[in-house]
Amino acid sequence: MKKYIAGILLVLMLIAPLYAVSGFSITIGEATNNNSAYKNSMLNYFQSKTDKNITGAEIKVITASEVNNVSKNVTGLVYPPNKIFSCAMVDLSYNNGIKVIVDKSKVRLVTPQMYANALESSGIDRGYVVVSSPVPASGEAALAGVLKSYEIAVGKPIPEEAKQASTEELYLETQLVNQTGQSGDKVAQLFRDVKNQTESQNLQDPAQIEVIVVNVANQMNINLTDNQTQQIADSVAKSQQVKANLTDFQNQLQNVSQQVSNPGFLEQISAFLQNLFNSIQELISGQ
Known about the structure:
The N and C termini lie close together (10 Å). Helices cover 60% and strands 9% of the residues. Strands 2-1-3-5-4 form a five-stranded mixed sheet, sandwiched between helices. The protein is an alpha/beta fold.
């Protein structure tokens, strides 16, 4: 009897993490969270962008310390708590690649493709992402919230070196927009094409990647300085180098995405748990 019950408990322990992960999460910047009008406006905005009831989402406040932990070594910027406004929603039931919606009325600089590029550098290749802010924002700090939303939705942390690589990439893209006068979409496409070619050739040496950067930039009629070319190559090389540490996160991301995109999956687990519970009750009552 004890062995039977122990076996049931073991099964419950194994499947509990799967059942607990919702694949649907929201992060609220702490400055927004401290203002009820701002918070409600963000939750209403997210509700307008999904057919799901956001009351079922896991909601977490993203703090200045969490943002600064990643960004301070990349951008050199340190944000106070009253400046963390950006918010994000992630839904892993969308399994047709990455779809990013950016509230352009509030997020002025970072484009959907920029976020998608940065996410891919963190091992993320799927999901529906919405980014907004109750007040005008450039959008760079929002990446910390987006990554945290993924960690909540997946139920597994992203390696810190991958977060830093994606933050560095996003920041560099925004710098190049200002420096070159090119649009955010065009700079994002430059990075995407360079990363695709680098990955297809399995390169990690910045010197070899520089050749690709020059060729792609010339094809797109983007004039880059030698320093800008080197910065892009170094950034892409770093994202390539951290990929080896992303296998566990990517596997969990794929598993959760498959689970939540199959509505019947959780129902089957629920029925299974109910049957186990009934079995345990019968065993106990029979003693």
